[in-house]
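Hi R.,

Here's the chain you asked about this morning:
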Amino acid sequence: MRIKPKEILVGGQAVWEGVMMRSPQGIALAVRQSTGDIQVQKISYSPLSKRYPLFRWPFFRGMGALWEALILGVRALNISLSLANKEEDRLTPAQMALSFALAIGMVVGVFFLLPLFISRLLIPVLTSQWVLIVEGCLRFLFFFLYLALIRLIPEVRRILLQYHGAEHKAVHAFEHGEPLTVEAASKYTTLHPRCSTSFLLVVLIVSFVLFAFLDFSQWYWRLLSRILLLPFIAGFSFELIRLVVFYPRHWISKAIVLPGLLTQKLTTAEPTPEQIEVALRALQSSLEPCDV
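And here is the predicted structure, written out as tokens:
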């Protein structure tokens, strides 16, 4: 039975020399090997929403989606290293756990805790409200500075940004009912409203507004609030992104997605036809049912 594009949502992420694609039918990974061949592998995974009904509810489904994206991202990266003829670079389970912990620690530390501590240095010269505003501004500054710096690294640009753009082109082609060919996908933009970049930016915006009104006098309460409220911020941000899916033409949806689309000019790059081909192979495979 032919799948109608409007009936399902597909998406993915760039990995090492390839793309991971996810659809309700399954998850697949396609990687370009050094020989030029494309290796495709299905990934078995049972969504949290199937195992735990709580993650089907509003807000909680956003927390589950964030957790799954992190878990699958590390797992897909590990598999892609193996498929790209880099078996020696494949991570052990302990190394995967450490990489996951370091990734979480970097996100929380750099984008939430570091702005908090720097802004505290301004307490003697600014009012409490302005300190909170400076903290939020520093969070945005570090985020965009990070994106701008990694874009300067040629290897990152080729392996991540261009494959990221290839993923978006493939998804656009599918959503517009186009044949899944390089020629059809090439004409589309590398920007997509449902990109995780848009989600991260919405998280930063929501946290900026929320933390601007959470004026705790003790520094440790401020610290705990930044950590403990992050899952709820992610859940709320996820619900905002869902508005874009169901009401894409509404002005509120357009306002939500616009900053993310502009930011994707930093997180994507124009891919080569060969990279688009890899993304399309991953998408085609993900649309085939996968037993889990």
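One quick note: Residues 5-285 form one domain.

Cheers,
M.
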